């Protein structure tokens, strides 16, 4: 049995295949991986090769919004038939070495609750669950088109129609991100330039499905769909955020309805969503629509492997 690690930067196809196979309900397409990599200069990728077959992926870096964190963000996934043969341990040591070069002694990873090896990995290496994301899916073939309207005086438009509203969307994100329950450190939107490059650009960005709730010329909330798989017609609810002094007026529900209506009108097959279990407000909005549960996603934190 021969195990080796090779650089993953030039093989996004294999990276996407392995990650998507392990996570099952999340689809990582090669162009999306390349965009994420381009926006995270500190990120490095490795692929584990077992007896000539590419069976595992390890990544590590500090993305926008985590600069102040003590942790590096890492993915570590091995195909189920290839586990317990050393590939995962080799990847863990490699991403740990890179994290230390970034001045980090902690790794933040994620997995799915129904993965049979998550608990074992956590127990062996001292990782703990710091966040639990309730996964949801909304098949659209029989989904009724919602008719929820925004409150009086608020209009809903898109960044395709009003690209000049992008700075206002960023302002909402700056206020809301830090208040969203999230395992580990608080979310940060970054500078406007960083936000625009990571969230308002790239292969997953859909300006026609990036909605802004506007009162006069002020953006008071926004909601964004992003492609998870354009080929399969699946999009992800990437974010819904409302300014603090505009919450509780039905804006989030109207934005969610606009997303679902757009997806139905444009022939998508399914929407996916996920919210931290502590995010009661977002989960209450989702409860008003016919979503179906998926397995939970777990955010895990633990120490780097001994160097």
CATH class of the largest domain: Alpha Beta
Biggest β-sheet strands, sense, barrel: 13 strands, mixed
- The helix/strand series, from N terminus to C terminus, equals EHHEEEHEHEEHHEEEHEHEE
Tell me, what's the shape?
globular
CATH architecture of the largest domain: 3-Layer(aba) Sandwich
Structural class: alpha+beta
CATH topology (fold) name of the largest domain: Aminopeptidase
Task: Give the N-to-C terminal Cα separation.
Answer: 25 Å
Task: Please provide the count of β strands.
Answer: 13
In helices, the fraction of residues equals 25-40%
Task: Report the total helices.
Answer: 8
The CATH superfamily title of the largest domain? Gcn5-related N-acetyltransferase (GNAT)
**How much is the radius of gyration in Å?**
20 Å
Strand content: 25-35%
Query: What's the rounded overall pLDDT mean?
Result: 92
Runs with pLDDT <50, length 5+? none
